[in-house]
Amino acid sequence: MPNFWDTITHPAFIIIYVVIIIAIVIFVVVSMMINEKRFSAAAKRLNRTTREIEEEHNEEKSEANAVSRFSMLKQYDEKRGSLPQETFEKDITLSQFCEEFRIFAAARLGLYYDISVIREFIAGLAVSRILILQGMSGTGKTSLAYAFGEFLGNPSVIIPVQPMWKERTDLLGYYNEFTKHFNETLLLQKMYEANSREDMYITILDELNIARVEYYFAEFLSLLEIPDPEARYLEVVSDQWGNDPAALKEGRIKLPENMWFVGTANNDDSTFAISDKVYDRAMVLNLDRKSAPFQASGSRVVRISARRFTELAAEAVKTRSVEAENLERLQKLDAYLIEKFQITFGNRIMRQIMTYLPVYAACGGEQVDALDDIIAKKVLRKLETQNTAYVRSEAEDLCNFIDATFGEDGMARCKEYVRRIARSI
């Protein structure tokens, strides 16, 4: 019998091998041709889809050139040239400004506030573009900010914060792909308007802590930390179209230097705690009780430009700098708080103090009262996060130290605040 090698090397088998190899080669070649056709067809479809997308985008831009996606902002552009010339009060002091505002709120709106509250409000605006009004319901938090807008002759904008707010678009609006228009919020419209005017603009964030402030207001907080106001821009859209409003630069809007944000805060189960990040950057005003009514007459609107208000504050800082005695007391209190509680004023709070005290004094108050107010709100509030048993045991010693440093008649708010914390924890 023939062996295995003879069998597989027989000419008939060799012919079979050759036929199989040729068949495989033909199969591979045909498969490659088919795949190439499929790839070519897919590439053509992809190119066609890309062209369609580009054509659709270009068509949107062409439509935008006819009808802007920012209808409200474009309307303002059209009417801006016909707006009346702005005229502002120049010969007024901060003390007169506070007195006239208090009289205006009472006579025109039936709203009564102690003069100390008015001074704290005005001095707070001089320190920061963010002011938080907190206290019990019905004490006039929203009304105070609303009345100030009326007093300026430039009504405040009230923005009711919603519980689901999380990001910038909740405040500024968003581009609707279906309607091909931008949903412009009232805040966006007022920011756009404020950038072309000199008035003071007051934006009220009503119930600001019903959502997390550090989420939806995060970009505003960051921008307000930038020293140069000309560098504070918020992105509204990612690109610029030909017929976009004139003051939008590459889809961005400038955060107006003449706009203040006044938030009203409630402290109950329906709200979130305001973080230290927000508290440190803002000024705080506590409205814990209603003020008694008083007779008021001779009220008037006082239009003052944001620039003039800033100038008055700067003049106060220059001419009424923090008294040397108060600076020495501050240093002693700071050292005590560091040693006993590991809390300190910090550079930001010190800068705020150096502005708040002189402006409060220029508003007609005493520097020591302003110091009592800002230390209680900005520094001693940090005791609430300390070990409860330790704070309770050290509370009276801290009050005694305050008496020894500032006098028994001074810093009443600070001592009351410390004792209240000790009682509540």
From TrEMBL:
Superkingdom is Bacteria
Chain segments annotated as transmembrane: 12-34
Q: Where is the ATPase dynein-related AAA domain?
A: 131-281
Q: Which GO terms describe its molecular function?
A: ATP binding; ATP hydrolysis activity
Keywords, comma-separated and alphabetical: Membrane, Transmembrane, Transmembrane helix
Which InterPro entries does this one have? ATPase_dyneun-rel_AAA, P-loop_NTPase
Check the record and name the Gene3D superfamilies matching this protein: P-loop containing nucleotide triphosphate hydrolases (3.40.50.300)
Give the Pfam families listed for this entry.
Answer: AAA_5
Signal sequence coordinates: none
Q: What is this protein called?
A: AAA family ATPase
